[in-house]
Structures are given as C-alpha cells and as structure tokens.
Design a protein that fits this description.
alpha/beta, 8 helices, 215 residues
C-alpha cells in the first residue's frame, strides 16, 4: 500500500512530498506513517535547517540491519512492535538526511556526528511531541517493578548510567571498530544524545538551534 502526503517547511515554506509504502499485514502500525514523516521533516527542519530534498520516503521492509536503514531521501524500516516504536524509528532514520546526508560525515571514524546528533534530535522530538510519555516504563513489564513514569529520555539515561557504573564507558570520539560491542549503540547513540541534550538545556533552545543551523 502507498500513502502520499505533503509537509510545508517551517522557514522557506517550500513543500516536500512524503511517501509511505508498506505491506497490508503491517497497516495497523503504518496507517499514520505520513504523520510521522511530516512531523520528522518539520521539526528537524525547524531545529537544524530546512530539508534540502523534494521527497521523503519510508518503506516497510524486512531487514537485518536493526530497526531501520537510512539513505538520502529514503529509509527502509524493519518490523516494529507498536505504532510508537515505528514512529521513533522513522523519525530517527529520516534524521540521517541532516547528519551524514547533508554533511557527509564519516560514521566509521566520527560516528557521534551522525548517530549521536541524530539521537539528540530523536530525544528532543519525543520530548516535544509526547512530553508525558512513559516509553521506558511501558517497555519494562508495563510499569511493574515500581519503574513508573520513566520516559524515552530515561531509557537513554539509564542505559548509559549502567555502562558507566560497571566501568565500561568509552569516549564519544572513538573509532567504530574500537568500540566494545555493547558500546557501539550505548556510547555513540545514547551518550552523545544525552551530552548534547544537556548542552541544549544549558545554552537554551534559541542559541543551541542557531549553533546547529550554523554547523
């Protein structure tokens, strides 16, 4: 099935065409995919500078590269367990159009410049659109074990704190092949996202956004 939509960029007012292509068996989660694509393009453009392409596409596909795999203009999405999970993956993968897509950063050498800055924007997106979310609590046995009111941001925070607490932390600026297997995701993605979220909160949104657009 194919859905087609359109989103107006917040600064230039230029319109971008959005496409969602999915198999009927996954329609339950994908039926609102245009909303996810349009919101991703809008917020990432607002914070980082306008999306430079004319189309954005998400394709439902069974892949082995984790939840999704990004390419300029198009992202291939793996199976999701909920509509929220699908939205987060779509937003994250679309975000790569800014970090590596536009900038051409070398993810093997400076992975944080792509995955980490993208995770910052993913965290900010969820906090902005779902400020009262309990994503982590929902993952952990629906709030059992007294882990209540824990958000998408808390998932990154607690994941990193566990790694740091057991003495397995590594610097953000580490070559991809030098990361411990568990740290490729925790440090490059989550730690960087947390560090830059802290920087954003310290500087304030207006100054931070000016810095990111300049970058």
């Amino acid at each position: 099935k194919v859905l087609k939509g359109q989103v107006e960029l917040p600064n230039s007012k230029r319109r971008v065409t959005s496409w969602a292509m999915y198999t009927p068996k996954n329609e339950k989660f994908w039926k609102n995919a245009i909303e996810y694509l349009n919101d991703a393009i809008y917020y990432y453009s607002l914070w980082n500078g306008n999306y430079p392409y004319n189309n954005v596409t998400a394709v439902d596909g069974t892949i082995s590269a984790g939840g999704g795999m990004e390419y300029p203009n198009i992202t291939v999405i793996g199976n999701s367990s909920s509509a929220f999970d699908l939205e987060v993956v779509i937003v994250h993968e679309v975000g790569h159009n800014w970090f590596y897509g536009q900038l051409g950063t070398n993810e093997r050498v400076h992975g944080w410049m792509d995955e980490g800055l993208n995770t910052l924007n993913e965290l900010r997106y969820v906090q902005t659109k779902y400020p009262g979310n309990t994503a982590l609590s929902n993952m952990v046995m629906n709030g059992r074990f007294h882990l209540n009111d824990l958000s998408h941001h808390d998932l990154s925070d607690i994941t990193y704190r566990v790694i740091a607490g057991i003495g397995e932390d590594q610097p953000i600026e580490t070559h991809s092949v030098d990361f411990a297997p568990i740290n490729y995701g925790v440090i490059m993605y989550q730690k960087t996202g947390l560090v830059f979220t802290y920087l954003k909160d310290y500087l304030g949104d207006e100054l931070f956004d000016e810095c990111m657009r300049t970058y």
